[in-house]
Design brief:
The protein is of the alpha/beta class. It is built from 13 helices and 13 strands. Helix 1 packs antiparallel against helix 9, helix 2 runs parallel beside helix 9 and helix 3 packs across helix 4.
Amino acid sequence: MLCYIGGSESEGHFSLINEACSMFAHTNPLHLDVFQSVARFEAEVVTMTASLFGSKEKTSGGQICGNMSSGGTESILLAVKSSRDYMKAKKGITRPEMIIPESAHSAYDKAAQYFNIKLWRVPVNKEFQADAKAIRQHISRNTVLIVGSAPGFPHGIIDPIEELGELAFRYGICFHVDLCLGGFVLPFARKLGYPIPPFDFSVKGVTSMSVDVHKYGLAPKGTSVVLYRNHDIRKHQFVAVTEWSGGLYVSPTIAGSRPGGLIAGAWAAMMSLGLEGYLENTKAIMEVSKKIQKGIEEMPELFVIGKPDMTVIAFGSNVVDIFEVNDILTSKGWHLNALQRPNSLHICVTLQHVPAFGDFLQDLRESVKTVKENPGPIKGGLAPIYGAAGRIPDRSMVQELLVNYMDSTC
């Protein structure tokens, strides 16, 4: 669970977006003629977001467009569906395949299942980045899409977007850049002078992007943007029905009815913060991220995975069971993501961590010491489950366990 907004719910930004959501809670952008203001809010959120990713640069082509969605997963689903159908129209591909690095978000697995696309998940390189050479080896006449992340969710590392873009352009296929996590950090980090490699539509070959406004954009949960290089690609996202007895129907996203209040909340968040607000927030979280990374690197029992580009730091250990460390941290009130291949944890630094990063490092040191002196799982901890799941060679069994767990909780 992540809360990207600092402060309490009764003050500042929290109350602003709550009020905006409440004012438009009754609206539904499916009915554009009735709720014209919400349609305008959506268009302006998309335009403001696109301006961060090269829409004003000549190399981007001047046609960047998009829509809002319910989150990063839906934005990715929409981009995959649009790419599949665009490539069918352009090249006649009827047995589509897409190629992703193993660090890419699991939403691509969902998209492959939903849209009947063969998925190739390719190992990353030694720097935990997408391996362009390995991806190239999987490209065939049926390839519709390749994928890169800026950064990847597990380790906070940016894939070689320029190299992947050149590959996509050379083979005439689509290339999606996942900026769900980094979209409202990287453009501002670059302005602040951090060494951020190219990642947006100014890179030749990039055809679509997903950008979550509800993460570092500090908008209400349930708001993301999917962007396309041009209208020819985006048109394949829409569903238009002409022969229904209920009348003519057209919808841009997977959902039909959508909560207009969330769109209004996202617009209010972006208008309130503005460029200066996002720069200020980015400066704070980037500085704290570097301090946390340095603090972890100074602990001899731990190692940082790769070279994090942003505000996600993943770390593991060759000395202690990192999942047992996580259980101790959880008992102290910290909730970190448990990763695999390699077994590790990551912290996604937000405004909430800015005043508390020293406490986190102290608790992490104590947790490592506790596990080192008293190895073995604590009662009620998840370390045995994570450890066992990683050791089971039959991954279909792990998949069945996950499905049964979900089935029992809802």
